[in-house]
């Protein structure tokens, strides 16, 4: 039996056998070079656009928030070294600090009014203006105008309206009510002013969401015999879930961070106590009780997160079903 050498592989081949496959073995094939999805410049741009804002948020938002949690367990006036006192600040806040419980009650009332009154009114205005009624743009501008005003300016405007001597409200009603001086009514009077601004904000958010709803959904519901109310509750409103999350977060933040409007009226005293005012008075006031004020800030943070996290968990459970 004679053998010949394979010219390609350099190995002997038996005579009479079929010629070998000239293509190289599979193991020797060069792997295909994958084209990168993003160029180096794209990756640098993405890192800059996402990394820089994240770094700013961590530095100026979560950094101070975590620092406040740590300082809440200390007694510190900003000059002398901080002393660790454990839960003493929280104990003093809940037992021997008289403004705390009224301020907490006022914050919860504030939040409830924005959630249960102002937000539904904003939604109602958005539904009405989404129907392209005559003068819709004009009404949108009128209702949105208070949003561009700061709460300090809103407080100044309503101070003139509520003035007991020459205020617009007493002049029209013929009464002599001290709307901002009477602790039995001044919180509700200020809530009207805050709601006036909040309604316009919510209206714009929901109006943007309603513009994105596919009209074919409404038409299909109408063909099935659903009325306007049923169409909205069962078809349109469920599609606004992302907007609802934004509205909830905005409302909770607006309700718990309220500060400037009461501070411009009477510095948050005499029936207008709020947690934000107490935090400011303790941290930047003459007492400089930074640890004590930080404990108040942590309580406010926990209340804010409790509302938002509870709603997000419920929403995620609904989506998983």
UniProtKB/TrEMBL annotation:
Organism domain of life: Bacteria
Name of a matching Pfam family: BPD_transp_1
Gene Ontology CC terms, in alphabetical order: plasma membrane
Compartment list: Cell membrane
Keyword Thylakoid found: no
Broad class of where this protein is predominantly found: membrane
Membrane disposition: Multi-pass membrane protein
Domain ABC transmembrane type-1: 104-311
Protein name: ABC transporter permease
GO BP annotation list: transmembrane transport
Record region (Disordered): 1-37
Biased composition (Basic residues): 27-37
Segments crossing the lipid bilayer: 44-67, 108-129, 141-161, 187-208, 243-265, 290-313
Keywords: Cell membrane, Membrane, Transmembrane, Transmembrane helix, Transport
Species name: Kocuria turfanensis
Family stated for the protein in its record: Belongs to the binding-protein-dependent transport system permease family.
PANTHER family the UniProt entry points to: BLL4140 PROTEIN
Origin organism lineage: Bacteria, Bacillati, Actinomycetota, Actinomycetes, Micrococcales
Keyword Acyltransferase carried by entry: no
């Amino acid at each position: 039996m004679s053998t010949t050498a394979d010219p390609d592989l350099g190995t002997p081949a038996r005579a009479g056998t079929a010629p070998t496959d000239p293509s190289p073995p599979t193991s020797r094939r060069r792997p295909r070079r994958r084209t990168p999805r993003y160029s180096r410049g794209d990756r640098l741009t993405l890192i800059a656009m996402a990394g820089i804002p994240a770094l700013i948020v961590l530095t100026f938002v979560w950094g101070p928030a975590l620092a406040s949690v740590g300082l809440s367990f200390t007694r510190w006036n900003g000059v002398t070294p901080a002393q660790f006192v454990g839960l003493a600040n929280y104990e003093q806040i809940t037992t021997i600090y008289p403004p705390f419980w009224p301020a907490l009650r006022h914050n919860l009332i504030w939040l409830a009014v924005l959630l249960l009154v102002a937000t539904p009114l904003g939604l109602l205005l958005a539904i009405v203006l989404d129907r392209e009624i005559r003068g819709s743009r004009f009404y949108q501008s009128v209702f949105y105008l208070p949003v561009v005003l700061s709460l300090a300016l809103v407080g100044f405007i309503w101070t003139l309206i509520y003035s007991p001597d020459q205020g617009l409200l007493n002049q029209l009603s013929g009464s002599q009510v001290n709307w901002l001086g009477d602790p039995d009514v001044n919180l509700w009077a200020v809530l009207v002013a805050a709601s006036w601004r909040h309604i316009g904000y919510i209206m714009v958010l929901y109006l943007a969401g309603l513009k994105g709803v596919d009209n074919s959904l409404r038409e299909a519901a109408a063909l099935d015999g659903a009325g306007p109310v049923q169409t909205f509750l069962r078809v349109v409103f469920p599609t606004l879930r992302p907007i609802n999350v934004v509205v909830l977060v905005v409302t909770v933040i607006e309700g718990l961070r309220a500060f400037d409007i009461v501070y411009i009226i009477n510095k948050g005293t005499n029936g207008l106590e709020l947690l934000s005012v107490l935090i400011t008075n303790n941290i930047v006031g003459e007492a400089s009780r930074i640890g004590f004020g930080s404990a108040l800030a942590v309580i406010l943070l926990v209340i804010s997160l409790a509302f938002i996290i509870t709603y997000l968990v419920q929403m995620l459970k609904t989506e998983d079903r």
